[in-house]
């Protein structure tokens, strides 16, 4: 856990300062954790983007409030450090989770550059919250369920080729994808590029959900498909969820199956496994079964690599059983 | 939002049944949201894995409690549906977030197969919670910060080639990666394969954090590197976080930079942009700048694709400005 000791460049404060990075979750009172509320209550100073300050206004009486605008993350972190050096307890608030495109990373970068260490007299605590991908997903059904990723389309700090390479990789490998910062007044083309990249791998009718202001008064949910993503109504407060190749929309709910149909007759529950499969055991196409299959096939690494869409060197290594023991 | 009407195959119940899929977060009282507590309080019946039932035991007085073991997710969903058809309010509890490798997906699969629709008299609500990747991240510093993904190493329901392909794609594209279900008594080889795949792309000294039982009494945090991942102590209750190529560990904290160093002199805050960069604007290597650069370069799509590690057809399309308007 993160702990505390003496600050480097100020005289010791009478009481120990503290910085709490608080994830508010989606921004409704009901979805705050008890720890998030307690951390804000504990704070002398609360710093955050004006929308988040407003969201928790009734918890802020008597506290110093510093409102910062969107592009001032580093300044907020520096201000928090200054107050903490004076012995104050500071809550830096973010919507969602502070660790997800939030204040946690920048704050540590600033703290380290300023000579702070976890042994310093300033304690740092990160209070986790549900991120937009979880809260938006909860409103549309069960789109995540299986392997997923989050990609920010903001190129304010990240080169476009890096973003494009990531989009292509996850579209190829069939992840459910949450796009953060999908579009703004100045950045309207990145979502078009993202669509183009996804269409290299994903069907045009792939389900897409667009959720704006989850759990807040102006909440809005829309479903569309990959084909129409570029012209969809998407703004600064939207999160875009792109389904994988198994995701379906039914009765207004977006659901990504967990894979039970690979093993069970779903409606009959866990008693009804399909032929050759066992409850609680790896699939016949799980690691051990797959290794047996490819080793018994007599086929080349190149052929198998093409069939399974895996790197050839990886398949070549897999074809060679380790000396001695059978695969587990 | 998800709503309610008449069930298909039972006589109408006197009161409307309800199924609430509740994410408990990491499993400490402090990290429950107000809505999660309220949903459990509202329930007549609470169904869940015995560990989660125990975690919220003090909220369960007077309720019907159904404990299920790990591989009985479909059965739990069927039982919830039965109770809800009788007009009961049922809370299906998961640790973390119900939508992330949790009960939400399987529950909807079961409900749809049983003929339920959102207009049925059984309302379904998903109460989001912070998932393991967020709560584990909060304990080790700020490892997520930038684009990340979650991959389950469980091949009980997913073919190994699918998992391997995903691991390779995200290692190549430099995501921070959270491995769920990394290892168990029966599945000890998958983590070794994952390490091998990552080493194709990531340095051997890439930081890795292993967090067990986050925010619970037996919490344990360990740092290691990719090189030593295969022999690390990892169990059923562990989440593994693998850093990207910029992630560093310093003073016992794992931090992935947000990219501020691409634009700013970090210690001086937002006033000190590096040459050619502007606060609040895309990087010079953002989409518009990159398109200008490649179009002015005179180089072929093949050369540029190799340099930027992007698909050649994507680069070829990008080299051609759309007729008329300049890129936004």
Automatic annotation (TrEMBL), chains A, B:
Pathway: Cofactor biosynthesis; adenosylcobalamin biosynthesis. Transmembrane segments: none annotated. Residues 18-229 form the Tetrapyrrole methylase domain. GO terms for molecular function: methyltransferase activity. Keywords: Cobalamin biosynthesis, Methyltransferase, S-adenosyl-L-methionine, Transferase. It holds the Pfam family TP_methylase. GO terms for biological process: cobalamin biosynthetic process; methylation. NCBIfam families: cobJ_cbiH. This is Cobalt-factor III methyltransferase CbiH.
């Amino acid at each position: 856990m993160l702990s505390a000791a003496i600050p480097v460049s100020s005289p010791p404060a009478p009481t120990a300062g503290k910085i709490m990075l608080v994830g508010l979750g989606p921004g409704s009172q009901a979805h705050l954790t008890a720890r998030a509320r307690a951390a804000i209550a504990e704070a002398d100073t609360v710093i955050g983007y004006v929308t988040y300050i407003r969201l928790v206004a009734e918890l802020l009486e008597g506290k110093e409030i510093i409102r910062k605008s969107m592009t001032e993350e580093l300044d907020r972190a520096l201000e928090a450090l200054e107050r903490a050096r004076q012995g104050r307890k500071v809550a830096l608030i973010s919507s969602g989770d502070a660790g997800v495109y939030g204040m946690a990373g920048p704050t540590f970068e600033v703290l380290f550059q300023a000579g702070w260490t976890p042994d310093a007299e300033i304690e740092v605590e990160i209070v986790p919250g549900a991120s937009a991908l979880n809260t938006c997903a909860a409103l549309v059904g069960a789109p995540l369920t299986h392997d997923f990723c989050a990609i920010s389309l903001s190129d304010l700090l990240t080169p476009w080729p890096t973003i494009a390479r990531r989009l292509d990789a996850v579209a190829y490998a069939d992840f459910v994808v949450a796009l953060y910062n999908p579009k703004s007044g100045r950045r309207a083309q990145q979502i078009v590029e993202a669509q183009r990249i996804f269409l290299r791998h994903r069907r045009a009718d792939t389900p897409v959900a667009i959720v704006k202001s989850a759990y807040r008064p102006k909440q809005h949910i829309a479903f569309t498909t990959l084909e129409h993503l570029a012209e969809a109504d998407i703004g600064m407060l939207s999160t875009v969820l792109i389904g994988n190749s198994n995701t379906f929309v039914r009765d207004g709910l977006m659901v990504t199956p967990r894979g039970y149909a690979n093993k069970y007759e779903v409606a009959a529950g866990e008693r009804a496994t399909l032929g050759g499969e066992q409850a609680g055991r790896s699939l016949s196409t799980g690691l051990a079964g797959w290794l047996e299959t490819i080793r018994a096939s007599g086929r080349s690494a190149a052929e198998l690599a093409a069939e399974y869409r895996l790197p050839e060197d990886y398949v070549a290594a897999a074809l060679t059983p380790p000396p001695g023991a059978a695969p587990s």
